[in-house]
């Protein structure tokens, strides 16, 4: 019997321990530093894409995936808000003239951008 077997289907290496092959799992040094969108993605994977969640977890790529999704989502949100501000004509001048109106419109924009992010990036099969 071989001491070590590599499974190409799941990318794991198995070590012989007695009569059984056990997966060789190691903790990575990547700290879970993901933010709001990373946490939302994690919850979505745990509840609706359980197989993908388990694969990422076993391969040690879950935290990397969540950090990547979080960073991309925050960048996309910033980009969307800027584009929507230009389109809607929300400027610093409006902020000085009518602060409450500027705040109302910005809150609406931020909410709309967040909804787009959730639909496009967080709650997807990919």
Automatic annotation (TrEMBL):
<protein>
    <recommendedName>
        <fullName>TnpV protein</fullName>
    </recommendedName>
</protein>
<dbReference type="Pfam" id="PF14198">
    <property type="entry name" value="TnpV"/>
</dbReference>
<dbReference type="InterPro" id="IPR026989">
    <property type="entry name" value="TnpV"/>
</dbReference>
């Amino acid at each position: 019997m071989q001491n070590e077997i590599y499974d190409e289907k799941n990318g794991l290496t198995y070590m012989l321990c007695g009569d059984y092959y056990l997966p060789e799992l190691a903790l990575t040094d990547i700290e879970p530093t993901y933010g709001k969108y990373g946490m939302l993605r994690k919850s979505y994977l745990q509840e609706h894409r359980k197989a993908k969640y388990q694969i990422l977890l076993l391969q040690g790529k879950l935290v990397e995936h969540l950090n990547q999704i979080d960073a991309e989502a925050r960048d996309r949100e910033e980009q969307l808000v800027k584009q929507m501000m230009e389109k809607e004509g929300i400027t610093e001048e409006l902020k000085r003239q009518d602060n409450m109106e500027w705040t109302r419109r910005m809150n609406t924009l931020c909410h709309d951008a967040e909804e787009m992010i959730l639909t496009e990036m967080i709650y997807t099969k990919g």
